[in-house]
Every structure is written in structure tokens, then in C-alpha cells.
Amino acid sequence: MTIGTLRQAPHRILDWALPYWTRGEAGRETPAELFRVLYLGWLAAFVLKVLGASWDVSWHFRWLRDDLAPPHLLNTVGTVIAVGLTIVHWYTGYGVDRLASRLIVWGTGVFLIAIPLDLINHRVNGLDITAWSPSHALLFIGSGLMIAGVTRGWWLGAPRGDARVERRRTVVLAALFAFFLENLHFPAQQQEYGVLEIASWDRGEPYAEPSLLEFAANQLGRAVDREMIVKFSLPVPDLLYPLWAGVAGMLVLVIARLMIGRAWTATAIAAAYVAYRALVWPLFVGMGFPASAIPFFFVLGGLFIDLAFLACGPLGDSLLARLVRPVLGAALVTGGIYGGLALQKELLAAPPYPTDSWAMAGGLLAAAWIGAEILTRMYRLRDGDRDQETGARVSATATP
Question: Which portions of this protein are annotated as coiled-coil regions (predicted)?
């Protein structure tokens, strides 16, 4: 590629994109080429945001906060892409229906509002001791709405066709659910990093730099000692971790299995998330950042979700199946989660959790699973036919 070609590239992109820049209502006919570019853009934005966020949580267990830290800058690039795509969907109406557009716009808006609120929070209160703070919650909620809108847009608008086309549609759907799972589970990394932060202190080699420990100690109003480290590392009740992972996290996998409708969907998404965490673990540790306890037990949870669907397969889509599957599945998944946590705690590392909370987790998961069965069935009945007709009305043409 010559220098002249590189110089012409922006002009060619503009020449291609400008004809599409027309005002339109959500749900308008979307050329196939434009649809692919929009959703490739979303995948790129989410990849950058996830990488930046993963690095950010590791960063904050070692260094004092820095607004212009590299993880923030990486996340910002993804956010800029997301904002640009949001504007395109909102203005042109391409690639989304009305609900998907609203979810994306509201999610992006909440996320952007949360950024200055988080900065103000840090200016007033200093270091955030926990990932579970209100300003952080707004960031997660905004991202969740954004991902939900993009998932709906792809669900309705992705082309249907031969096996290759269907495989691509399924893979992207699974990837979007994996992004949603990562966003939802993200605050629980507080405990996954925290338990190893305490272990590093006990070894006499704390991960956190002295300036961070002194800052946290001043904020907690006590000396730099083990009790302060515990409060800094694990500032939320131990019960929160198994309930969040075993109910909220598993519910995402249940919905993914219901919506995508393919065998081993939950296992694949859980394994992909765990594989991502396992891949970035040595990368961050190699750069001198703290290690985290990877939630390997997620794979067991996803596996037992899929096994529950397989076991209830002979019941079809009957009402009995939609009642038996959640009860059986919740029992299997809860056993897998708590058994996996116990095994992981023994062999590797896991956040502390009350072992007697399994009944609460199982009951909540069963109730949430039943609700998911009802809501996803209503969703598919209402919108399932639309995706057969390409709800976002993707055209076979490549010109506006």
C-alpha cells in the first residue's frame, strides 16, 4: 500500500458513507453492507471497552487513581466509537428498530452522564473503595442498556440464509451475550482481586503500592494493617459474591440459551468469558499488575444450564417444560456453582462466601429462571416472526 493510497483512504470512506447520512426513522431498510459495518463497529467498540475496563480494575489494585491512566484512554477509544455509532443509529434509523434505538441511546446517555459524576465523586471522596459504588453502577447500567440495544438490533436485523450465514448470526449473538455477561459480572471482580490482595499482604509482598495503601488507610481512618487491607479489598458482604455470580450471572446464560436456541450455548458463552479472563491474566501479571481469582466455576454453571435444557428436551416447549426446566436447572446450577467455588477455593483461590447461602441462591435462580422463560417466550412470539422477515429490513443491495 502506497502513501498516496493511505492519504486517499479517508476520502474514500467519506465517499462511501455520506450517501447514507440522511434522516430516517428507526427500522428503515438497511443495506447489507452498511449493516455489517455498523455491527463490526460495535464489536470493535465493545472489545476496546472490555480490554480497558479489565486493565482498569487491575490498575486500581496497585496504583492511585489517574484520570488519564492508559486503561481509561483505551476505554475512551471504545466509548468514542460507541457514541459515533449511537448518533448514526439515532439520526439515520439504519440497523435498528425503535426499541433497539432507544436502548442504545439511553444506555449511551446514562454512561456519558456517569463519567462526570464518577469524576466528581473521586474529586470529593478520593479513591473509590469499591466497584459497587453508585457512580460505577451507572456506568454498568449504561453499558448494559447499550449492549442490550445492540443485541436486539442484531437479533432482528442480521441476515438469515444458509448454514454459513446462520453460523455467523449465532456467533455474533453469543459474543454480544458474552459482552453483557462481562459487564454484569465486572463489579464482582472487586472480590476476585481483593482476596488475592489480602493474600499478597499476608505474604509480606502487597500488590498495592505504599501510596495507595496509605491513601486507603487515611480514607478508612485507621493505620495500614491487615484489618485495613481486608476493608479495602473486600468492602462488601461475602453473601453478595455467590448471589451475584450464581443468580444474576447464570440468568444471563439462561436468557442467552433461550434466545439463541442452540445446544451448549450457555457452556460456550461461559467458557469464552473464562477463557478471556485466563488470557488477560498473564498479560496483566506480566506487566506487574495484581492477579485475580478467575471464576472457573462459571463453566460448570453454563454446562448445567445446557444439561437442564437437554434433559427437558422430550417435553418440548410445553408449559410443563417451562416449569420443570427452571427447577431442575436451578438445582443443578447451584450445585455446580457452590461445588465449583469450593473446589476452586481449595485448589486455586476464590472470594470468601457463606456456604449455607446455597438455598437462597437456588431459590432466587429458580424464580428468576421461570420469569426468564415467560418473558423470552413472549419476546420471541412478538418479535420472532419479525426476524424471519429481517426486522431491521436488511436489503441485499449495497447502496442507499
Answer: none
What CA–CA distance (Å, rounded) separates 21 from 120? 36
pTM of the entire structure? 0.91
In a domain, 136, yes or no: no
CA 227 to chain centre: 32
Alpha-carbon separation of residue 382 from 75, 104, 387, 391 (angstroms):
36, 20, 10, 12
Query: In whole angstroms, what is the distance from residue 384 CA to residue 259 CA?
Result: 10
Model confidence over 123-135: pLDDT tens digits?
A: 666 555 567 777 7
pLDDT in tens, 30-48: 999 999 999 999 999 999 9
* Residue 343 included in any domain: yes
Residue 346 lies in a domain: yes
What spatial distance separates the first Cα and last Cα of the chain, rounded to whole Å?
A: 29
Give whole-number Cα distances, 376 to 257, 354, 368, in Å: 10, 32, 12
Sequence-distant (≥ 6) Cβ neighbours of residue 198 within 8 angstroms: 226, 229, 230, 233, 234
Which residue range(s) make up the domain with 291? 237-384
How many structural domains does the chain have?
Answer: 1
For residues 35 and 95, is the Cβ–Cβ distance under 8 A? yes
Residue 211 is predicted with a pLDDT of 78
Q: Is residue 361 part of a domain?
A: yes
